[in-house]
Fold these 2 entries.
Entry 1:
Amino acid sequence: MSVSQVAGFRREGTEWISESSGTRWIPVIGLEVHAQLRTMTKLFCGCANRFGASPNSLTCSVCTGQPGTLPVLNCDALELAVRAALAIGAEVAPTSKFDRKNYFYCDVPKNYQITQYDMPYCSGGSITVPSGRTVRLNRIHMEEDAGKSVHDQGDSTLVDLNRAGVPLIESVTEADLDNAEDAAAYLSALREILIYTGVSNADMEKGEMRCDVNISVHPVGAPWRTKVEIKNLNSISNVVASIEHEIPRQIAAWEGVGPDPVQETRLFDAEKGTTRTMRSKEGEADYRYFPDPDLPPLTASPAFIEEQRAALPELPGARRARYQAEMGLSAYDAGVLTAARDVADFFEAAARLSGRPKEAANWISNEILRALSDDEYEAQLIDELPLKPFDLADLIGLVDKGTLHMSGARQVLRQMMKSGKAAGELVIELGLEQVQDDEQLEAWCAEALVGREAVIEQVRGGKTKAVGSLMGAVMQASAGKANPQKVREILLRLIGTAE
Ligand SMILES: [Zn+2]
């Protein structure tokens, strides 16, 4: 990500230097991320946890806050929450509790949200981003999501409670960040971990992962100043854009352009690329937190924690390192293949079955992943393709044995991705089997030499590269079926130049 130029500022590393005053400013940034847990049901009732259902169809007396109902904890949510903690090296508290955060809003039917206040289930942990910076986490706590207010209906606001009571984890970093690039890298890494571990789908477009940015600026060496919260950012690019907007806005305010920044919550307007005041920030006292009397303390025994640790898959960072060290892949290829767990699993199976990890990596990153973003194929995920890892291994084997040339193999792959037919079957069906028959190959080669004396002279003169144009003629004559390696050998032999 490139550093954008902002009028009135010069940037050196992470410092913003005001051109008018010459003051060097340092941003201080912390991130709070809400992620919905991938459970079948909500946190405290049996309603389905599903996106996209018709409004208020996934509700019951508990999640609509009817009097007399009692919450019952969904143990699956606790399991996933603990896995998230373990995946970032955090500590799981043996005992934690649920609290009520009281506030009145139309999408919070109980008039309070069940969350964890002073005794979260998880503390510590960290994520290191590619720049080398380690971002420490302060805590992760569990809570229930609120419903959704829909404001785009003219004068009225509609409320959909399908999301009310959906399990969330909220992870809070220390203020370890000072630039938008590292903030983006942290969010990508966290998202990757959540998806890999099956903790969350973390689809930001669906609101399954949302980010709040806490940000302040201060002159180098001076104490930290008032922080501002930017709420509910629904994409990593919006996080970047809001930080890049907010830093110069705050500096300009401190330097006398407009009033000093106050502690407040702001909203990011993605269209304008600016932030605006949403409300002055409530102090914690305003929420009158107290322990939820309907829920017993939450306990996590060492055996339970170990069970969750055992259920964790190998994490993307570890996989990337292994692909480079053991399979000889480049850092770039390892990154592409581990970006999604299903792709990494597909790659590992194909690499094992074919014994050719580099070829498997090339086919997947150059052909298969590209095809998945293409409308021509119905599948959007590698797991949805009729092509399976052993099919790819077969194809790699056919190329390896010389039965198929590369362009033919690409044709076969495209058909396999549509029909799921075996590679061998398609080679015959499409008439792509390479011609290995020496007599036929020699006839094509001899024909290619006719009238090309100039090229022949070049080759005789030591320019063996020139043989390429002759090979092209043979490939054309054979409709691409001639085995190129053999063709090359035969051409050089006929010209009388052995390599
Ligand atoms: Zn319910």
Entry 2:
Amino acid sequence: MKKYVHGYSRREAVRLMDQAKTLEEIFHYDSVWTEGSLILEAGCGVGAQTKTIAPKNPHSDFISIDISPDSLLEAGNTINSLEIKNVSFQQADIFNLPFEDNYFDHLFLCFVLEHLPNPMEALAKLRRVLKPGGTIMLIEGDHGSTYFHPDSTEAMEGVQCLVDLQKQNGGDANIGRRLYPILNESGFNNINVSPRMVYVDDSKPVLVEGFTKNTFAAMIEGIATEAVNKKLINPERMKKGVDDLYQCAEPGGVFCYTFFKGFGTK
Ligand SMILES: C[S@@+](CC[C@H](N)C(=O)[O-])C[C@H]1O[C@@H](n2cnc3c(N)ncnc32)[C@H](O)[C@@H]1O
């Protein structure tokens, strides 16, 4: 990863937590593994998903890795404060995994492949440490699935700025639509990809706050300065784009986005 587009700021950590909390049911109603499994969570970040999937699988064990020591420290504090006992954290690089072949029963990744220049290589490295018959579970977004009311050309340009910045860093913010082919080309079998659509209107105040405002609009706001500095957009259009996204969180506003969840077997 050349540079992680969202950075490791406090604000970003809070955004990841908000996102995970709001989308818990949509993402994780089926994040359940056979009891007694050993699961590798790769790219756990600040533990935003860990704190949901670990208690949901109390009779399995998780090794959650990340390349960022600061994120791991925060993840560890969160998991300790919640008294979750079935997770151990380890600093490790997906591209240089310190585990034997066929070590894990299952793999889990969320919002990691989208930041990597070589997702296929990452999957090959991860596949090595997965037992034959073990599964992979992946969750990714796809910014091309964004639409909203009131519509706004500037807001769409703001979203495109994030897609462009992520591409400059070697990632793909529209990777969700590629999960099936990527898993297929990586040699996984029994692949199943399901869209996880988030639809928000003002009858769903928790999603308005947690997703439209604190996840999506905050994410575009978070890259606004960099996008302007890199001359991807002029400051006025970027400001209007961000304001218009926040407008979708006001009464009468609607916001739609589709995540993708993929499963495969080794
Ligand atoms: C967007 S965050 C997602 C965190 C968490 N999975 C979640 O859903 O909130 C991506 C994470 O992948 C980690 N990461 C990126 N490249 C990595 C690598 N080569 N090895 C391990 N972790 C990596 C980053 O440090 C970051 O914490």
